[in-house]
C-alpha cells in the first residue's frame, strides 16, 4: 500500500476565481433586457410595432438597462480594488473595452455617418472605468458624491439634450446619434455602484438552475454579446417583416 502523501498542491487563482456569480447574473439580466430592447426597436424600424421612443415607458426601459450596466461597473470596480486584483488585469479589460468602443464608433461612422455613436454605452463605461478605479476603495464617500451629482444634474435639468449640445459645439459631434449616454447623471449612478459591493450584494446566494446559469454566462460574456447581438437580431426582424408582409 502506498503511503498517504502529506504534500498539498495549492491551485493558482484563475480569472474566474475573482468573479461573483450574482454580479454576473445581475449583468446578465441587463444584457437580456438590452437584447429585448433592441429587438423591439428593430421590429419598430420594420413597421411591425408602433410605439413612442420618446415616451416615458420606453425611456424608463432604457434607463433601467443603463442603470444596471453602470452600477455593475461600479460594483466590480470596488471588488477589484478591495481584493487587490492585478493592475494588469484592469488594463487588459480597459483595452478590450476601449477597442470595442472604437469599433462601434468607426463602424457606425462608416454605416451611418449622420448618426454615428460618439459617446454611447461602451464609450461611457470606458471613461467611467478610469474615473472609478482610484475612488472605488472609498465606497461610502464615493456613493455620497455620486448621489450629489445625480441630484445636481436633476436640479439643474442637465439632461441628455444639454450634454449632446455641448458635444456638438465642442467636438462637432453629429446632431443625431443612435446611442448617447448623458455623462450626468450617469457618472453619479456609476459612483453608487461601489457601495453595492461594500454591502456585499455580490455575495447573494442565487438558486442554481438553467435560468441563472444562462444569465451568469451572458454576464460573463456581455461585451461579446453586445458587439454581436444586433448582427443576429436585425436579420431576424427582417425575416419576420418579410414573412408578414
Can you describe this structure?
By secondary structure, the chain is mainly α. It has helices at residues 21-45, 56-82, 87-111, 121-132, 139-155, 160-171, 183-198, 210-220, 222-244. The chain starts with 20 loop residues before the first helix and ends with a helix. The model is unreliable at 1-16 (pLDDT under 50).
How is the topology of this model organized?
Elements: H1 21-45, H2 56-82, H3 87-111, H4 121-132, H5 139-155, H6 160-171, H7 183-198, H8 210-220, H9 222-244
Average per-residue pLDDT, rounded, comes to 91
Instruction: Write down the overall geometry.
Output: globular
Strand residue percentage: under 5%
Helix-strand makeup class: mainly alpha
Number of helices: 9
Order of helices and strands: HHHHHHHHH
What oligomerization state is this entry in? single chain
Using DSSP, what is the number of strands? 0
Task: Give the biggest sheet.
Answer: none
Rounded Rg:
21 Å
Low-confidence stretches: 1-16
The separation of the N and C termini measures 77 Å
Helix content: 55-70%
Which short descriptors sum up this protein?
disordered N terminus, mainly alpha, 245 residues, 0% strand
Put the structure in a nutshell.
The protein has 245 residues and is an all-alpha fold.
Amino acid at each position: 500500500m502506498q503511503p498517504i502523501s502529506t504534500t498539498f498542491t495549492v491551485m493558482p487563482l484563475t480569472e474566474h476565481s475573482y468573479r461573483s456569480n450574482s454580479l454576473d447574473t445581475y449583468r446578465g439580466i441587463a444584457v437580456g433586457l438590452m437584447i429585448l430592447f433592441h429587438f423591439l426597436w428593430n421590429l419598430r424600424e420594420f413597421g411591425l410595432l408602433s410605439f413612442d421612443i420618446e415616451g416615458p415607458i420606453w425611456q424608463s426601459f432604457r434607463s433601467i438597462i443603463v442603470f444596471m450596466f453602470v452600477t455593475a461597473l461600479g460594483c466590480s470596480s470596488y471588488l477589484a480594488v478591495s481584493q487587490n486584483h492585478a493592475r494588469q488585469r484592469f488594463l487588459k479589460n480597459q483595452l478590450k473595452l476601449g477597442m470595442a468602443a472604437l469599433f462601434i464608433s468607426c463602424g457606425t461612422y462608416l454605416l451611418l455617418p449622420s448618426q454615428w455613436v460618439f459617446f454611447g454605452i461602451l464609450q461611457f463605461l470606458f471613461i467611467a472605468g478610469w474615473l472609478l478605479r482610484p475612488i472605488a476603495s472609498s465606497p461610502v464617500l464615493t456613493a455620497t458624491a455620486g448621489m450629489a451629482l445625480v441630484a445636481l444634474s436633476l436640479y439643474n435639468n442637465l439632461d441628455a439634450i444639454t450634454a449632446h449640445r455641448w458635444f456638438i459645439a465642442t467636438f462637432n459631434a453629429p446632431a443625431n446619434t443612435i446611442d448617447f449616454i448623458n455623462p450626468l447623471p450617469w457618472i453619479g449612478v456609476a459612483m453608487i455602484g461601489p457601495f453595492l459591493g461594500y454591502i456585499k450584494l455580490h455575495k447573494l446566494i442565487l438558486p442554481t438552475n438553467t435560468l441563472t446559469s444562462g444569465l451568469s454566462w451572458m454576464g460573463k460574456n456581455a461585451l461579446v454579446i453586445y458587439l454581436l447581438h444586433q448582427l443576429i437580431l436585425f436579420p431576424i426582424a427582417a425575416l419576420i417583416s418579410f414573412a408578414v408582409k
